[in-house]
Amino acid sequence: MRGYVRVVSGSRPVRVALIDNFEVSVAGLRSLLAPFGGRVALLDLGTAMTKPSSVDVILYEPVRQTPTSQGMLRDLVRASQKSAVVYSWRDRDGETTGSFAAHLSKALPAPDLVNAIEALADGGDVSPMRRMPSDHGPLNVIKKTRQRDYELTPREAEILSLVTQGLTNAEIGAQLYLSINSVKTYIRAAYRKIEVTRRAQAVAWGMEHGLAPLAESDVTGG
């Protein structure tokens, strides 16, 4: 994040709780933050709920929240005395609703995301990260591999994550309110960018790049 110098307040990593009904997003964030374990740690949600004092930053995806997840968010904010920060593909001026202290895009590269989380934990300003201009163009939403950037748009990355999760084109269309033809168009564009031709190859690529769904043991902490 440009223009920001973090003042280190302690030696432990910043502890983050994420409330997101897309399990693949939780798995993706965990993979994204793994190389920065000394600076940021993603807490198991069960741990965060039972020990809210351990939480430094709360992230949440407002899209497709259920009454249960909304209740968990309210309880965690109240118990931890921390503000909730939107972490979403959607722009702040898009379909998200409700009030929030800041808005971090899921398209942020890992170093920028880590810097923003640290800024939030230290009470700093993350205004440069709050929204993506509509003319931003293709976004680097997948980490670098073999010295290349995969210039996936947010929608292409979102659909790839659902492909990796095992959803059919019809299920993806129903979940994202897209026509089958639109889903196929996004998939073809994504396949070209990651240089695969078959669904099995795309799933393997997604698993390698942190887009795989959580295992049951990861969800429950068992």
From TrEMBL:
Alphabetized Pfam families for the sequence: GerE (PF00196)
Keyword ATP-binding annotated: no
Keyword DNA-binding: yes
Gene Ontology biological process terms from the UniProt entry: regulation of DNA-templated transcription
Keywords annotated in UniProt: DNA-binding, Transcription, Transcription regulation
GO molecular function terms attached to this record: DNA binding
InterPro entries: Sig_transdc_resp-reg_C-effctor, Tscrpt_reg_LuxR_C, WH-like_DNA-bd_sf
Domain HTH luxR-type: 145-210
Protein name: Unannotated protein
Phylogenetic lineage: unclassified sequences, metagenomes, ecological metagenomes
